[in-house]
Amino acid sequence: MLINGQWEEEFQPVHGTDEEGGFVREDAGFRNWITVDGGPGPSGEGGFAAEPGRYHLYVALICPWASRTLMVRELKGLQDAVSVTVLDPRLTNKVWRFGDSADAPPGSQPDPHYGAGYLYELYLRARPDYTGQITVPVLWDKQRETIVSNESSEIIRMLNSAFGTAARNDLDLYPHAFRAEIDALNERLYHRFNNGVYRAGFATTQIAYDKAVSDVFDSLDFIEARLDGQRFLVGNRLTEADVRAFVTLIRFDLAYHGLFKLNLRRVCDYPNISRYVGHIHNLPGVAGTVNPDHIKLGYYSIRSLNPSGIVPAGPLVEW
To answer: Which residues form the catalytic set?
Structure first.
């Protein structure tokens, strides 16, 4: 991680722990908002108007947080308004590397703007004295040459609402009539499920691991029951709650079931969830945000969990 703009500590997946040895995720360091007129959003500073072509997403296809921004970009039809670079999925001692090495996996790309070797170099361009972890996604302002945000939950709301007619699809993933229900569901699933898989995989004590496993499978049971007789999680229409659930579900059997030792059941063992994941995966543009090879390469490159570096072979679920 960076401390006062200097690389001081090699990558460690555990940002911090609580009193029981549970995994604690570091808060995002950049929390500005793109708005229609450039006025300030709910946090950060203003000056980021929704101008097509001005912004760029840096993502890694291993990462569910990054992939939900890609999903919303596809679903809203913002491909021409917001450009994208896909990083090498393998985690290095300096975390995220651009795909400019001879052995870079297909689909990973070099930095198109500065020729950077690692993503942390852009963090330093944005804030030379930055202290913190280097995470994806990064929403970059090409005009001001700075990071707008690295908080995915807020980036997806910007992409959903800020760009107006620049979006080719008027789909609203956060409709007013269902906001309270979406927020409540997001709150329920984030800690127990979306972050719960990481709490299991990176637990440093048995009690922390047991709690996380219980939360994850309680959440899967909850989702399975909620999908009984309906296609989506809220209002029987596609919303951001589905985007947030999908990115964790699609990675479960590929990585979390084995590497994170969440092996009580697989997602494919839940009929309603399996049908749901397949349906969302087949929505226009979504399949292109899911790269099973990048997901497996990325997770199994975490040496603290997989010292051998071997990526297991095995059949993939066909959605």
So the answer is: 63, 198
